Amino acid sequence: MPATRDRTSRDRAASRPSRPFTLWREVLTAYAAPALMAGTSGIVTGQQDLAVAACTSIAGTSAVVAFLVGTWLRNGGQPRRWTTTTPRVALTAALVITAAGAAALLGWFTAQWLPAHVPIPPTPWLERLRGDLPVSAALATTIVTLRWRNTITASPT
Hints:
The chain is mainly α.
């Protein structure tokens, strides 16, 4: 009797080749998704500053971080061996901590240090950067790392 065609959706998903990792698509998505979500939230709740930050600091940070992390992970088309063999959760956590930490330092620098040393008046939007940058960096890094990792098959040791 021939093999039946009744397979579960899980079997079908496992047999399909994964979509290739395309950096420009990831960067575009990293900009558009938070801009739409935070912008809509800002408009619905009447928070003008959130609506503006959605398209600037939130989405901009996400796009820049997605580009930097995606470029680093691809490494010129030859991924680093440890990035393909390290468990997904550990790799994602390490990259998220690094990116969010760097973004938090940049947010602190921009909101605290810069106005104290340069003739820039402290404004509420500068204070927003302290929260917007690390959160956006963490989300973008998580999504890009997991999507990239789904397109890479671990090389045998």
